[in-house]
Amino acid sequence: MLGLALLFFVIAIVAAALGATGVAGVTMAVAKWLVMLFLVLAVVSMLL
């Protein structure tokens, strides 16, 4: 899951460099949600 977040982050950086700000914004939002989901699942797995 963290790998997917990093992939979306790289896509956002490349899209921003190429001037596609809409695509960059969407992929950055997806990456942010994947990181949040990863953190929640990591905390839950440490507590169990």
TrEMBL record:
The keyword Transmembrane applies. HAMAP family: UPF0391. This is UPF0391 membrane protein SAMN05444422_10337. The lineage of its organism: Archaea, Methanobacteriati, Methanobacteriota, Stenosarchaea group, Halobacteria. It is a single-pass membrane protein. InterPro entries: DUF1328. It comes from the Archaea. Keywords: Cell membrane, Membrane, Transmembrane, Transmembrane helix. GO terms for cellular component: plasma membrane. It is found in: Cell membrane. Pfam families: DUF1328. The chain crosses the membrane at residues 29-47. Belongs to the UPF0391 family. Its main location: membrane.
